[in-house]
DNA sequence: CCCGCAACTTAGAACAGTTCAG
DNA sequence: CTGAACTGTTCTAAGTTGCGGG
C-alpha cells in the first residue's frame, strides 16, 4: 500500500496568520496558530491584529473577545480584583469555564488544578494567591456565560456566516489524499489546552493539559508529497514517511504520556476494510465456537491451575461479553477492571439465590467507570473453580492470579487464527442481533412495528455489552408528554369513528380513510412510547457502531422492505458504505 | 517472561443542529 | 415564531492488541 497525501490536506497544521472571525474559538487551528505565534515570540503581523486588546491576543481563547478584563478575586482582601499574568489568566479561565460542573467541587480535581495553576504563575502571583478556596472565579465564569448567550442570540445571518466558515475550514483542512482517493480526516483539529477530565475516580483529573506546539508534532506522509510547513520560526518535531501505519499526525500528550493521533474518518477505505475484516474474523469464530466451548469446558477439569483459570475466564468472556481486562498501573488511572483483572472483591458466590443454584454476583467498574452489575447462574464446575480461586485470598487479590490478557490471547491465537478476547464480544453481539431479528420480526407488521422489533434486538445486544446511560434528565416529563399525545389521539379516533357511523353513504369512504389514518398515527405513538420506556437506561449507539455487523441490518432492511435511512443516519451510512454495497437480502451473519 | 511503547478500536459526555408542538 | 425535546456530531479518554528489547 502506498500513501500519498496532498499538500492541501495536511495543511491543517500549516496555520495561517490572519484575523479570524473566531466563532470556532480555541479549537480552530487558526486560533491555535495565533497563540503559537504569541508563545513563540514570533510576533504577528500587527496590520491584522493590532487593534485587539492585549489579553485578547494572548491565548487563542480570546481571539475574538473585545473586552477581556479577566480577573480573579482573592479572598485575603475581600472584593479586590487581581490582574493576572497572561499565562496564569488563561489557566484560570479553564477552571472558570467549568465552574458549573461537578468536577470543580471534587477535592482531587481542585488539588491537581491548583498545583498546575501555580506552575503558570509569576512569583508575585504565587505569593499572593495561596489558597484556591479563596479565589472567586465567578466574574470570569459570568463573562463566558454571557459570551455563550450572545452566541445563541446571534442573528440568522451571523449564524449562517459561521456555518459557512466552518464549512470552509472543513474543506480546507478536513481532507487528505490516500492512494489517490480524497478521504475525510476524522479529528483534524489539534486538541486545545484545558483541564484534564478523566472519567470516574481519576487521580489526574484537573491537571493542566498543555498546548501542543509545532515542536511536538510528527507529520507522517509519503515522500513525494509536499508536507505542510510549520508556522514561521518553528519546526515540526519530525516529518516521517511510514506507510506501515495509518496516522497522519501524532504527538505525545502530557497527562499520561500517551500518543495521540490524527487519523482518517470511518468512511475512509482504510477504516472500512479494517471494519469488514473485524466482522469476518467474528464470522470465522462462529464456525469453530462450539469446538472452543467444548475445549474450555474440558479445561475446567484440568490438573493445572493456570489452565482452569484460563478456561473460567474465557467462559466469562464468551458468556458475559466481558472485556479482556489488562493490568493497569496503580494510581495512574481510575480503578477499573475487565475479565483478567477481576479481583476477589468483585464477585460474590451464592450457593443458592432466588431459587437458582450456583449464582455468581458480579459488581465492578468497567471501562469508563461504568458499573457492571449482574447475577449469573453458572455451571457447578465453574462455581467450584471460583471457590478454589478465591480460597485464602484477600478481597483485593486478583481472582485469576495465574492469568493475564497476554497469556489468554496467546492461547486464543492457537485455537483460531486471528482470535483474541475482543472477537468474542463482536461475535456474541452480532450473532445475538441476527438471532433476535430472525426470531421477533413479524413480516405482517407495519414499518414502525418492525423498527420497534429492530430496536429491541439492538437493545438485547446493548444489555449484553453493558452499554448503559444515565436516564435522560427529562425522561419522566417526556414520557408524560407522549402519554398526553396518545390520549389526545385516542380521543380524536373516537370522534372520527362516531362521525363515520353517522356519515351518509357517499361520505363513508372518505370518513373511513380518515379514521384509518388516525389509527395509524395512534399506533405509531404507542410504539414510540414502548420503545422509549424500554430504552430508558440503555445506550444503543455503541453497539450499533462498533459491534453489530452492518450487513445483518442491511439485509434485514432489504428483506422486510425497510428503508435503510430508518436504521442508519447519514454518517452511519457513510461508515457502512462497504456493507451497503455488499449485503444481499439473504445475508446471514 | 516482563515491560514499555505504539497503534488502533471503543466509549460516553458535551455540544450543535434540527424538529415539532403550542 | 419560539423554545423544549430530540437527534446527530464532535471530542478525546479509555480500552485492546502486538511488538521488540532486556
UniProtKB/TrEMBL annotation:
The active site is at residue 547. It is an enzyme of class 5 (isomerase). Residues 195-561 form the DNA topoisomerase I eukaryotic-type domain. Keywords: Biological rhythms, Coiled coil, DNA-binding, Isomerase, Nucleus, Topoisomerase. Its main location: nucleus. It is found in: Nucleus. It catalyses: ATP-independent breakage of single-stranded DNA, followed by passage and rejoining. One of its GO terms (biological process) is rhythmic process. The keyword DNA-binding applies. Residues 145-172, 479-535 form a coiled coil. It comes from the Eukaryota. Its EC number is 5.6.2.1. GO terms for cellular component: chromosome; nucleolus. Transmembrane segments: none annotated. The keyword Isomerase applies. GO terms for molecular function: DNA binding; DNA topoisomerase type I (single strand cut, ATP-independent) activity. Releases the supercoiling and torsional tension of DNA introduced during the DNA replication and transcription by transiently cleaving and rejoining one strand of the DNA duplex. Introduces a single-strand break via transesterification at the specific target site 5'-[CT]CCTTp site in duplex DNA. The scissile phosphodiester is attacked by the catalytic tyrosine of the enzyme, resulting in the formation of a DNA-(3'-phosphotyrosyl)-enzyme intermediate and the expulsion of a 5'-OH DNA strand. The free DNA strand then undergoes passage around the unbroken strand thus removing DNA supercoils. Belongs to the type IB topoisomerase family. This is DNA topoisomerase I. It comes from Sinocyclocheilus grahami (Dianchi golden-line fish).
Amino acid at each position: 500500500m502506498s500513501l500519498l497525501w496532498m499538500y492541501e490536506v495536511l495543511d491543517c497544521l500549516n496555520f495561517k496568520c490572519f484575523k479570524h472571525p473566531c466563532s470556532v474559538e480555541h479549537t480552530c487551528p487558526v486560533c491555535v496558530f495565533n497563540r503559537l505565534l504569541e508563545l513563540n515570540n514570533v510576533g504577528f503581523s500587527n496590520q491584522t491584529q493590532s487593534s485587539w486588546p492585549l489579553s485578547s491576543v494572548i491565548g487563542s481563547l480570546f481571539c475574538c473577545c473585545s473586552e477581556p478584563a479577566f480577573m480573579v478575586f482573592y479572598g485575603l482582601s475581600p472584593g479586590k480584583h487581581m490582574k493576572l499574568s497572561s499565562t496564569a489568566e488563561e489557566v484560570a479561565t479553564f477552571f472558570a469555564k467549568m465552574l458549573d460542573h461537578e468536577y470543580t467541587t471534587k477535592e482531587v480535581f481542585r488539588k491537581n488544578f491548583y498545583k498546575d495553576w501555580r506552575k503558570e504563575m509569576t512569583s508575585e502571583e504565587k505569593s499572593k494567591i495561596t489558597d484556591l478556596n479563596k479565589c472567586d472565579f465567578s466574574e470570569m465564569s459570568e463573562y463566558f456565560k454571557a459570551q455563550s448567550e450572545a452566541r445563541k442570540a446571534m442573528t440568522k445571518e451571523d449564524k449562517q456566516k459561521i456555518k459557512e466558515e466552518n464549512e470552509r475550514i472543513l474543506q480546507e483542512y478536513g481532507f487528505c489524499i490516500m492512494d489517490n482517493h480524497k478521504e475525510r480526516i476524522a479529528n483534524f483539529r489539534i486538541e486545545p489546552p484545558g483541564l484534564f477530565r478523566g472519567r470516574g475516580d481519576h487521580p489526574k483529573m484537573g491537571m493542566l493539559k498543555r498546548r501542543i506546539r509545532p515542536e511536538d508534532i510528527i507529520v507522517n506522509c509519503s515522500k513525494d508529497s509536499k508536507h505542510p510547513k510549520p508556522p514561521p520560526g518553528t519546526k515540526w518535531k519530525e516529518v516521517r514517511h511510514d506507510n506501515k501505519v495509518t496516522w497522519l499526525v501524532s504527538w505525545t500528550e502530557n497527562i499520561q504520556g500517551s500518543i495521540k493521533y490524527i487519523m482518517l474518518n470511518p468512511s475512509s477505505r482504510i477504516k472500512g476494510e479494517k471494519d469488514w475484516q473485524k466482522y469476518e474474523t467474528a464470522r470465522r469464530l462462529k464456525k469453530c465456537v462450539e469446538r472452543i466451548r467444548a475445549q474450555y469446558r474440558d479445561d475446567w477439569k484440568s490438573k493445572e491451575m493456570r489452565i482452569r483459570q484460563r478456561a473460567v475466564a474465557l467462559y466469562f468472556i464468551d458468556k458475559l461479553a466481558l472485556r479482556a481486562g489488562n493490568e493497569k498501573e496503580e494510581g495512574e488511572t481510575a480503578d477499573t477492571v475487565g475479565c483478567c483483572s477481576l479481583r476477589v472483591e468483585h464477585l460474590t458466590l451464592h450457593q443458592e439465590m432466588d431459587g437458582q443454584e450456583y449464582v455468581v454476583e458480579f459488581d465492578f467498574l468497567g471501562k469508563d467507570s461504568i458499573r457492571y452489575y449482574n447475577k449469573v447462574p453458572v455451571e457447578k464446575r465453574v462455581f467450584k473453580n471460583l471457590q478454589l480461586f478465591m480460597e485464602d485470598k484477600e478481597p483485593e487479590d486478583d481472582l485469576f492470579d495465574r492469568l493475564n490478557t497476554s497469556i489468554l490471547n496467546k492461547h486464543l491465537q492457537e485455537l483460531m487464527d486471528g482470535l483474541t478476547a475482543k472477537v468474542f464480544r463482536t461475535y456474541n453481539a452480532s450473532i445475538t442481533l441476527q438471532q433476535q431479528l430472525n426470531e421477533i420480526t413479524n413480516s405482517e407488521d407495519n414499518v414502525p412495528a418492525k423498527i420497534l422489533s429492530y430496536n429491541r434486538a439492538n437493545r438485547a445486544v446493548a444489555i449484553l455489552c453493558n452499554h448503559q446511560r444515565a436516564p435522560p434528565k427529562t425522561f419522566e416529563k417526556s414520557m408524560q408528554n407522549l402519554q398526553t399525545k396518545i390520549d389526545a389521539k385516542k380521543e380524536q379516533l373516537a370522534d372520527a369513528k362516531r362521525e363515520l357511523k353517522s356519515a351518509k353513504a357517499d361520505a363513508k369512504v372518505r370518513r373511513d380513510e380518515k379514521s384509518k389514518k388516525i389509527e395509524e398515527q395512534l399506533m405509531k405513538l404507542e410504539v414510540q412510547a414502548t420503545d422509549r420506556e424500554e430504552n430508558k437506561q440503555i445506550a444503543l449507539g455503541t453497539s450499533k457502531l462498533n459491534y453489530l455487523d452492518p450487513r445483518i441490518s442491511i439485509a434485514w432492511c432489504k428483506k422486510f422492505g425497510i428503508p435503510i435511512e430508518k436504521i442508519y443516519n447519514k454518517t452511519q451510512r457513510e461508515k457502512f458504505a462497504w456493507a451497503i454495497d455488499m449485503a444481499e437480502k439473504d445475508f446471514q451473519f
